[in-house]
Amino acid sequence: MLDTLDAAAVRRWCADGLAALKRHQTEIDRLNVYPVPDGDTGTNMVLTLTSAQQALAMDLDTLPDGEVTPHGHALRLMARGALLGARGNSGVILSQILRGLADAAGAEPVVRGHALTSALRDATAAAYRAVARPVEGTLLSVVAAAAAGAERAETDDLCAVAAAAAEEAAVALARTPEQLPALARAGVVDAGGRGLCLLLDALVEVVTGERPARSTPAPRAAARPATAVRETGSDQYDYEVQFLLDADPEAVDRLRDALDALGDSLVIVGDGVAGTGTWNVHVHVNDVGAAIEAGVVAGRPHGISVTRFADQSAPMVPATTDQSAATAPATAGRSAVVVAPGAGIAELFRGEGATVVPGNPSTGELLDAIRASGAARVVVLPNDANTEAVASAAAKEAHRLGVKVSVVPTRSPVQALAALAVRDPGRRFEDDVIAMAEAAGACRYAEVCHASREALTVAGPCQPGDVLALVEGEVHLIGVDLVDTCVAMVDRMLGGGGELVTLISGADAPDGLVDAVRAHVGRRWPFVEVQAYPGGQPHYPLLVGVE
């Protein structure tokens, strides 16, 4: 049993936590709200913590400088490695939790029970301050419960505090389906919360020498909620505004109040630098000008993007200001970095002159691609909702290196193709980004896959092996025959208008699938042009774009 959490214990915790995540990787991957075959929270957390362990291993003999304690140095290495290796939303959030622990515990001369309690409390408070209206039933609830359990222990005994935190986190995890309707509908607990519980149990084992006896949590019977939580916030707000901000904490506090009064889904996350640091600001509003003006009052905003939500064709209109020009490198080159989930898609993007990164990249991989491009201005097309957070983290890191990066929030490769088709190096970079974002937003996207498990979707119940047609990320159709479902999905999309259909076949697409869909469009929609490409993407036999 350990009295304090020293640097050696931090390294063992990282190694044991990674081993635990690997043992339960498949289980966590299956805790997916949608019954699609690419649930990868467990995989993303494993890859994120693998990067953290590699960062620790590379600096094994490095001694901390100045007033940094050995355990603080180890925690910061772990957090920094996690940030650069972060994959998906779960990986990015995990890296932020580790950074919060490192900032708080690393400042303590020794880490006993009270110090660990304080670190968990401070990390949780920072997370809640970053999110204006937190949604319960997520990883946020689980880390908050861990901090509350540590406080209730009321002891300086490190072992007792770690055990109490892990126990309360497990209880909170089992409660997540009661708090989030999407989890209840899917009959699962929160995947990211499950991963955090494993890490807390690993910490208990490191400090006590005993592994907690804990079974896999099972949610209560899944209820059928009348409504589901809207992931993008209230539908009364029409615009998403995002920007990076160089400002001091006091100004950010005032900005938080100002933006909170304008809209919802407010998230402000800092880089942890003392004094004037860089903050990532996100909010949904109706008055875009007021939101940006509030940023100007608070400090120096840059990398501004504005997205307009719409029911069908949603023009996404990022814009940037010239206020960051002083930090841009002298060179004037520009490039595009695009995430490609398949070999065929990668070739399409390379043909458009883009730098290609394989699917599900880490922050570090995207940052490497940005730097390798040698350009002073780079646009990143993530092509997946889960990769957007990773792209934003990479953009923030690139900004510190003097590279101006704009992330166009593409959700599918078909949107990226539309964006790259209108790229014009003769235009001002800011205008080019706007044109690319407008083209991406005007392209409605869909994908077809086979259900990986039984679930209740908004289109009704599905069974393993059923064909699911997802339009704009939501299940719209459930079928038995792949061709029939694809045809019905394209008809539904073209019913809202369209002049061009793009079809990208996956690695598992049967022979004749694309030809059958193309022939149907020719008969039913004779004035619609069809373009088809072999994509090679896994899980999804067909990706569809309608412009």
Question: Could you explain how this protein is built, in words?
Answer:
With 547 residues, the protein is of the alpha+beta class. Helices cover 48% and strands 18% of the residues. It has helices at 7-23, 25-30, 41-58, 70-85, 88-105, 113-130, 139-153, 158-179, 181-186, 191-208, 249-262, 288-298, 343-351, 363-372, 385-400, 413-421, 429-441, 482-494, 513-524; strands at residues 239-247, 263-270, 277-285, 300-308, 316-317, 334-340, 355-358, 377-381, 404-407, 444-450, 455-457, 460-462, 467-471, 474-479, 500-505, 529-534, 542-546. The strands form 4 sheets. Strands 14-13-10-17-15-16 form a 6-stranded mixed beta sheet, sandwiched between helices. A hairpin with a 2-residue loop joins strand 11 and strand 12 (460-462). The model is unreliable at 218-232 and 310-331 (pLDDT under 50).
Outline of the structure:
The chain is α+β, with helices and mostly antiparallel strands. The protein has helices at 7-23, 25-30, 41-58, 70-85, 88-105, 113-130, 139-153, 158-179, 181-186, 191-208, 249-262, 288-298, 343-351, 363-372, 385-400, 413-421, 429-441, 482-494, 513-524, and strands at 239-247, 263-270, 277-285, 300-308, 316-317, 334-340, 355-358, 377-381, 404-407, 444-450, 455-457, 460-462, 467-471, 474-479, 500-505, 529-534, 542-546. Residues 8-205 form the DhaL domain.
